[in-house]
Amino acid sequence: MRNRHGALLCSAVLALAAAPAEPAGLPKKPYDVLKLAEGVYAFVWKDPAQNLIESNALFVVNDRDVLVVDTGMVPSTGRVMAAELKKLTDRPVRYVVNTHWHDDHHGGNEVYRELWPGVEFIAHRDTREDIFGGTYGARAKYIASLEDGAARYERWAATGKDDEGKPLDDGRRRRAGELAALDRGLAPELAAIHNTPPDLTFDDRLILHRGDRTIEVLWLGLGNTRGDVVVFLPRERIAATGDLFVQPVPFGIGSYYEDWISTLGRVDALEADVLVPGHGAVQRDRAYLRQVEALLSALVTEVKSAAASGATLEETRRKVTLADWKAKFAGNDPALERAFDAFFVAPAVERAWRQARGEKDQPVS
Ligand SMILES: [Zn+2]
How many whole angstroms from 168 Cα to the centroid of ligand 1? Predict the structure, then answer.
């Protein structure tokens, strides 16, 4: 499995059951735009465990301009989000914050530059570097993998058999057709993207004063990636957390699990009544955040103990299944169970095991 958010989605989507049929091109997905305070809105995708995972966004409408947090996976998604913003205000977008380097948080940047040429894109300095390495540097390979995937799923759908010649039941055959359509829609969009990287970077904190609004852009420590930032509105008591905090199942790909626990503690300590996660539903208490913190603690403790006893990676995988946690996060929903395994357990156990053994950090792509 490649240590890359976008590429992982391709393999993980296979595991997500019961998705709706998709027309040619990218699927249309349901979303909500929620007013959180005067001039502050969350754009929230309603079905986070969807085929193509998309980031939420925050719109902060100020006296004379707008700040946006995260722009979606591809320009067509960015256009859906920007069209909703235009319904709320005619003020121009002056700033976009990309919370981290994963493709689904900055793939729509070019749309904002087209619509508002004066916009500036803000990110942590490591995020900018990782966007060049992990997204732009890996895109050709990612597109090739989508094209290979599409050809394979088309073959499965046409023949009713998988690569080993085993017959597919009706559900899997239909699913293969859906995935082929998704990959066929995504590949040309990615190929046509105009790279629009962050042009304003910072290390720890950047504070914007827009009229009587204060917007704090905070790096609180290593976490889901090395450059995650939180956008905090102290007066409105609202924080957008990027993927430091994702609902209904956390993502743990290429992460810094032990540091992430204390970083989440700093998110917890913000005086915010409303948390807008990178994916999933807006949270108005700390119950889910503390559940994620406890999951990370369990992961780190269990993997460290396995590594200390000399367990190999395979032995560690067998020992650290996080089965009780899967039940807490996924309930009895098979699609969420598979998402929990694909997005968290599989990548996190391996990387935490390497970290426990003191292995040098792997590059992002
Ligand atoms: Zn994300």
Answer: 31
Cβ atoms of 146 and 183 closer than 8 Å = yes
What is the Å distance from ligand 1's center to 278 Cα?
6
Please give the distance, rounded to the nearest whole angstrom, from the Cα atom of residue 245 to the centre of ligand 1.
10
Closest CA to 155 of 142, 144, 141, 168: 168
Mean pLDDT computed over 177-195? 92
CB 236 within 8 A of CB 270: no
Distance 130 CA to ligand 1 centre (A): 14
The tokens for 162 are 């998988």
Question: 1-10, 24-33, 200-209 — which is least confidently predicted?
Answer: 1-10
Q: Which residues pair with 96 in a beta bridge?
A: 68, 121
Q: Are 94 and 78 in contact (CB under 8 A)?
A: no
Q: Residue 3: how many CA atoms within 13 Å on its side-chain side? A: 19
DSSP-derived pairing of the beta strands 66-69 and 57-61: antiparallel
pLDDT in tens, 129-141: 999 999 999 999 9
- Please write the tens of the pLDDT for every residue from 196-226: 999 999 999 999 999 999 999 999 999 999 9
Q: Which two tokens stand for residue 154?
A: 């088309």
Provide the terminal-to-terminal Cα distance of the chain, rounded to the nearest Å.
11
Contact between 12 and 344 (Cβ < 8 Å): no
Structure tokens, 98: 């990309």
The DSSP element (H or E) to which 205 belongs, if any, is strand 205-210
In whole numbers, what is the pLDDT of the chain averaged over residues?
90
What is the per-residue DSSP string for 258-275? HHHHHHHHHHHHS--SEE
